[in-house]
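Hi F.,

I've been meaning to write this up properly since the lab meeting, where we talked about keeping a consistent format for the predictions we share between groups. The idea is simple: the sequence comes first, exactly as it goes in, then the structure tokens exactly as they come out, then a line or two of notes. No screenshots and no reformatting. I'm using this chain as the first example so we have something concrete to point to.
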Amino acid sequence: MDKDTLKRLVNILIEAKILISWFDIIQFAKDVFKITPTEYQEEFMRDFTKMNEDKQFYYKKHLVSGGRGAGKSLIASIVALWSVTILPFILGKEYRVILMGGSERQARKVYSYIVRAINGNPILESLVVEGPYREKTKFVRGELLVLPASEKAARHEHIDMLFIDEAAMVPEPVMKAALPIIGESTHPKLVLTSTPGPNPTLTFNDMLMNPESWGIEKVYYFDVERAPWKDKEELEVFKKKYHEDEYQREFKGQLVVRTKNAFDYSKWAKYGMEDISYSSLLPTYAGIDWGFSQESPTALTIAQVKNDTFYIITAHYIPGTDENYILNRIMATLNRYNVKEIYADASHPAQNNRLLQEGYKVIPIQAKNKKASMIYRLKNYLEGGKIRFPINLKNMLYEFSTYHWEITKDGRLIPRSKKDHIIDSIAILLEGYANRETNRRIAIFLTY
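Output, unedited:
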């Protein structure tokens, strides 16, 4: 055996020994990505690779909730690359992975970590058959696809592992389309990582609150305060500047659902419905909260009443500053649903008079000194199931989820939410309807 042949053989043996050492994903992370995982990262990676005697994964679904900068995207790149390069040797079969992000940019960010790791390691480069390309890299016994978060992309051919980074940003229809695509794999894996969104109705947030119902065996929390690379003094600044709930969500990965001085999500969310159809046989009412700027748009709510329950048909913003445009949009909606009465914010008499002149029955609602009673009525109706709503009204659901308030010493209610326009339009509608019912009962009483 000549020296060159012997040298090649030694190199092959060294590479084989290295590949075998990479069966341990922690060693893979250290050698390929040049990192020493934190305790919480190592826990996740150990669980990710844990198998039984039949080489079946112990955990098939993983949920990672973490603060910004806690290392979620890096861990995503590590386990995704390990799954298409090393895992096939362990399983003795090809393994295919789809990588998505809450946005295509997010998916590209994770993929850039992977490409950098491949280009910096000759052994991994030798395993590449095709690529790395923008959408796909094919390895000796694995394949990695990078797809945008869209329904069309999600309905891809079935694969072995689906990895979605920043999953809280993925629209619900995309999630519904993507989650089933690992269903035919003999070794399925689902990994979702994200910082929780502010809206508890998001699919990722629902998974955090109800992991068992989604078949998720374990939830991992990547806390930025435990990340050694984070400047602790800088974190203290954010802790002082951010609202406590916001800090818990953005930096510690905790989903905070307020129940004090807020609408209790655990009670109202169950009254969401897939579809609420308009009926010409039921009375229809409207609530209007006027606004004439991008930051404070007009909000219009249309609801029908049946057995003292309000079925919201639509609740949406009408943005812009053009009064004629806003009024025309409102009138088109009122005509479409044959609205019987309109309850509108009394602080804009000119706009209310315009609707009156057009022949609509408009009842101004003075809300200035009634804020507390109006919001508490809405809270009682919402949490008691007397308000039913379509779950596709995302702006309304966002307001329901984030609306909170403070009560002053003199009993006034002060909203502390950035957006409350639809909330106000619904509260105005309920106030107007309550006054209407009171007046109706008084009229009946006086006839006797």
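Notes:
The chain has two domains: 22-252, 271-447.
The chain has 18 helices and 17 strands.

If this format works for you, I'll send the rest the same way.

G.
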